[in-house]
Design brief:
By secondary structure, the protein is mainly α. It folds into two domains: 55 residues, no CATH class; 413 residues, Up-down Bundle (Amino acid/polyamine transporter I), CATH 1.20.1740. 71% of the residues lie in helices and 2% in strands. It has 21 helices and four strands. α4 packs antiparallel against α13 and α13 packs across α21. The radius of gyration is 22 Å and the shape is globular.
Length: 483
């Protein structure tokens, strides 16, 4: 995807006054080449009236979903619902399952408070992502390339690609395990079969943004339905469940509890979601004046908060099920997905393991959509390089398949479980390199202008960023040291 970075003119009243007229939209092709240079519609005020050569984020779906000018509040909300669910997928992907199973089986309902805290931080960070994407007309990858020198931007791109491959690896292993549990397909064959999801993604992308969002919302509903039935079958002690959401000193004083709590936190906030959300919010054709953008930020924030609340319920359901079924029965050592599947039938009924496997399969397939879109956002934003979606998907999936095939061939199921943990450690290592740039842009009053991030969000956002970085660093250190 061609195009040169454009150095923004100095912001301020003088530059704004010189170009007071609203900016027209880019041509429909969105290629951003020299012939199609135009005024960027969603650019910050300091760009107003400036002819630039800059590609749009996810050009195939950019401003493709209409937002009604008339009608009630609910009608407008429905127009904005969708991107939040694409983001929420990353908060309940197969990489989260092992930590929730381990926490519930070992400590009952105690670590529900960690799941709640992680989700609240995620809601805040994703709200900031929505604000930045709408206010600047840029996604996080584009902003990094625009603001940072190449010596910083290119390593950030490489780390983001590694994080996406690690995410894809977790989804690949989870899908392969689900195929094995449901249909008896050997893990090695299942790993290879997962490459075929590239064609599903290609078809969905061809149909449009609403089809992608409908697919994700539908599979999320399947996951929620499966776990709702499992919760009923497991018959948890609801008083203990509610107490589990209250903080407990043992989480800090007990080293094993702290380690699993760090794992839950480290597996919750995903780096690729921060890049993705700043891009997908621009798929809505909201009004480009200050009032229209404020309204878009409000509805996009509501959309992501509702979607992440569902993700919290699903993650909580995994932990609650593990606590009610395994911890109550004295099985405090269940941490692997295959072990949980085998123990569910004798402890919770014949239907429980099948519901568990169906939810896992839906979760793995669901996550492939967001991994593909994130890869496109990162590559196009940092490099201005566009690849056909199916080629991009195959490259990413083949990079993830290689270690999975080798480990599965030589070590079998135990190896894939260790590889799943390793993917989460890689994500923990990369997370600071996405969170810190996000908060730097959120704190940039000159770039955000009248849509500047409120001070309370900045304070909580930086506190969350510091906490996530410190706890993830400790998790990584503990894994390296073998503690």
């Amino acid at each position: 995807m061609g195009g040169k970075a454009v150095t923004p003119p100095p912001s301020g009243p003088a530059s704004d006054a010189a170009n007071p007229s609203p900016a027209p939209r880019l041509p429909p092709d969105g290629r951003g080449d020299g012939a199609a240079a135009a005024v960027i519609a969603g650019a910050p005020r300091s760009y107003a009236g400036r002819l630039v050569d800059w590609p749009r984020s996810l050009p195939e779906v950019h401003r493709s979903v209409a937002v009604p000018n008339a009608g009630g509040w609910l009608r407008k909300l429905l127009a904005f619902i969708g991107p939040g669910y694409l983001v929420a997928v990353g908060y309940m992907d197969p990489g989260n399952w092992a930590t929730s199973l381990a926490g519930g089986s070992a400590f009952g309902y105690t670590l529900l408070t960690v799941a709640l805290l992680s989700s609240l931080m995620a809601m805040l960070l994703q709200a900031i992502c929505a604000r930045i994407g709408i206010a600047t007309g840029r996604d996080l990858a584009q902003l990094c390339r625009e603001r940072f020198p190449r010596a910083v931007a290119y390593p950030l791109w490489l780390l983001a690609e590694v994080a996406i491959c690690a995410t894809d690896l977790a989804e690949l292993i989870g899908t392969a395990i689900a195929l094995q549990l449901l249909f008896g397909i050997p893990l090695l064959i299942g790993v290879i079969l997962t490459a075929l999801d590239a064609f599903l993604i290609l078809w969905l992308q061809h149909r449009g943004m609403r089809w992608l969002e409908a697919f994700v919302i539908g599979t999320t509903a399947i996951i929620a339905g499966c776990f709702a039935i499992q919760i009923v079958l497991s018959d948890p002690e609801w008083g203990a469940v509610l107490r589990g959401y209250l903080p407990s000193a043992s989480i800090v004083t007990d080293q094993q509890q702290l380690y699993i709590a760090l794992g839950i936190l480290g597996a919750t906030v995903m780096p690729h979601n921060l890049y993705l959300h700043t891009a997908v919010v621009q798929s809505r054709a909201y009004a480009l004046d200050a009032a229209g953008k404020r309204e878009a930020i409000r509805f996009a924030t509501l959309d992501s908060t509702i979607a992440l609340s569902f993700a919290l319920l699903i993650n909580s359901a995994i932990l609650i099920m593990a606590a009610a079924v395994f911890h109550t029965a004295g099985r405090t050592d269940v941490a692997e997905i295959q072990d949980a599947y085998e123990l569910l039938a004798p402890l919770s009924g014949a239907a429980a393991p099948y519901l568990f496997a169906i939810a896992l399969l839906a979760c793995g397939v669901n996550s492939t959509v967001t991994a593909t879109l994130s890869g496109q956002v990162v590559m196009e934003g940092f490099l201005h390089l566009r690849l056909p979606p199916v080629l991009r998907r195959l490259i990413t999936r083949l990079i993830a398949i290689a270690p999975a095939v080798v480990v599965t061939f030589f070590y079998g199921e135990s190896g894939t479980a260790q590889l799943l943990v390793l993917s989460q450690v890689v994500l923990s290592l990369q997370l600071p390199f996405a969170v810190i740039p996000l908060m730097l842009f959120a704190s940039d009053r000159g770039r955000l202008g009248p849509l500047v991030t409120p001070r309370w969000q900045l304070a909580l956002g930086w506190a969350s960023a510091v906490l996530i970085v410190v706890l993830n660093a400790k998790l990584l250190w503990d894994v390296i040291m073998g503690s």
